[in-house]
Structures are given as C-alpha cells and as structure tokens.
Amino acid sequence: MGDGVLRGHIRILITTLSLSIFVTAHAGNLPVSNVATSFSKSFDTTLQRKLASVLEQMGLSRAAINGKLAVALVDITNPDAPKVAAINGDEMMYAASLPKIAILYAAFVEINRGRLRLDKQTRESLTRMIRVSSNEDATLMLNRIGKQRVLEILQTGPFRFYDPATNGGLWVGKEYAKGTAYRRDPLHNISHGATVLQTARLYFLLESGRLLPPDLTAQMKEMLGHPAINHKFVKGLSKRPEAVVYRKSGTWRQWHADSALVEANGYKYVAVVLAEDPQGGQWLERLITPMHDLIVHPKYAAVTD
C-alpha cells in the first residue's frame, strides 16, 4: 500500500487541540502565551509522510486503518516551532495505566494551588504510581485529590486535556482497583482513556514550561524519569543508548499504551502510541526505534538557533 492510499484511509486528525483557549487564559499564576497558534499550525507534512511510511514498512497500516493503532510523534527540539505528525490522532482508545499521568498532572495542579502538600509521602506515592505503575498508589492519589476534582481539572481551565472538540482525551473514571467505573467518559464510555494527541500535548506543555511553574515542572518531570518497567518504548530504546526517557505506559489484556518525552543528542521529541491487539506490546517496542530515528540524527547535532 502506497503512502497516498495510506493517508487516504487512515484518520489523520491533526486538530487545534483546543489550544485557542490558551490565548487569553491563565494557568494558576502563569500567563499563557500564543503557543496556541504555533502548535495548532505545526502539522508537518514531511514528518507525517515519514511516519506513515514507518507504519507501512512495519506492516501496521491495516491496524491503523481498522482503528486499532494510533500514533503521535512531535519534534519539540525547538519548543517555539514544534513539528507534529499523527495517525488516528484524535481516536480515543482504552489506555490502561497511561492515564495515571493525568492523576499526576491533577496532583501538581492542586500542589500549585496549595491544596495538596508535596511532602515525602506524597512524593513517593506519586513516583511509584508513575515509575512502577502502582495501582495502589494511583487509587490513593485519586482519592486524595478527589475523583470528581480530577475530572474537573481535565475538562476545564486553560488546558482541557479532555475536550469534546478533540473527540475526548485523557480520562480517569475508575479507580485502579477492582470494582466498577464511577464515571465513564461521555463520548466513548471508556473508564481509562486517552488520545495520542492530547497525551502528546501534555508532555509538550510540561517540557516547554507552560504547564506548571519551573520548580514543579522539574519535580513532575523527575517522577516521569528513570522508568522501572523495561518493556515497550523503554525496551525498544535500549537500542539507542543516547536516549533519556520520561514516560508513562499502560497494559491490560489486548490494550497496550506508551507515551514518552525523549531527549537525545540535542534533540527532543514526544512519542505516544495506543494499540489494541494481543501483540500490541511488541508493536510499540518495534515502532519506537524508527520513530526515534526520524527525529534524532546519529551524530551529535544540537540545534542552536
């Protein structure tokens, strides 16, 4: 299948990601810049073509066409001019533990507002929730913040990581424990969901310093670092030892998810992949290396302008 046919069939949904609300809104005490305009206009046709070619070469085009695979790749080496490519970018899928990053974000919103203390216990709990994907700590933090409060943070304010205008996004509507969902997302009836573009957007805003004040940005990023589970992106990137990875993944039955901010050789990018297939974990492990190579040159070539 050629690139033209692939692009004709796959839902390539590069949207404004509700970024227009950034222009006049404020996040806590942080003034919000015109990043809205720059990011929403950052769809890069060359990167898009190359990303589609990677899927074709790996035999994953059909999975994407059938809505079983969603991929986002964002070159943020220059944060003022990100380059965005996505396949099924706004396709909301079950994402298992990946939306724990939304709990982490909500916790830092409350920390920034003085409603939650980042003491030793909270820091350790949040770190375990991310690095080893502790369900116990995720449920603990979800209840400390408040289930409805987490959903309020995701759906309101300047960022809206869940927005009907982008076909949903990050959603946490169930404890990470046995039991039923307390609130499934209104568009797709999913308990723990994500879209690749909304997830990528969170990483981009974090890394560009637009999500939180600098001290909290550094602490949230530190929790995403040093991943303790060696699979999916982390295992695939072991072939690229220059890569420094900040990530949150998820797995449940046939659903596999990974998301990461990666730094290497002076480059930075965000990669997010969601898959629904028993072999999805292997897909992610195989995909991340060629995705990495689309952004990172083998020789050091730091961007200086």
Structure description:
There is one protein chain. The protein is an alpha+beta fold. The protein has one domain: Beta-lactamase (3-Layer(aba) Sandwich). 39% of the residues lie in helices and 18% in strands. It is built from twelve helices and twelve strands. The protein has helices spanning 3-9, 35-40, 45-57, 61-65, 100-112, 120-131, 135-145, 147-155, 196-207, 214-224, 232-236, 280-295; strands spanning 26-27, 30-31, 69-75, 83-87, 93-94, 162-163, 168-169, 171-172, 192-194, 244-252, 255-264, 267-276. It has a five-stranded antiparallel sheet with strand order 4-3-12-11-10, sandwiched between helices. The protein has a three-stranded antiparallel sheet with strand order 5-9-8. Helix 3 (45-57) runs antiparallel to helix 12 (280-295). The model is unreliable at 1-38 and 300-305 (pLDDT under 50).
* Rounded average pLDDT: 88
CATH topology: Beta-lactamase
Structural class: alpha+beta
CATH C-level class is Alpha Beta
SSE order in H/E notation? HEEHHHEEEHHHHEEEEHHHEEEH
Sheet having the most strands: 5 strands, antiparallel
Low-confidence stretches: 1-38, 300-305
Q: Total number of helical segments?
A: 12
User: N-to-C terminal Cα separation, in Å?
Assistant: 38 Å
Strand order of the largest sheet: 4-3-12-11-10
In the CATH hierarchy, what is the architecture at level 2? 3-Layer(aba) Sandwich
Strand content: 15-25%
How would you concisely characterize the structure shown here?
With 305 residues, the protein is an alpha+beta fold. The chain has a single domain (3-295), classed as Beta-lactamase.
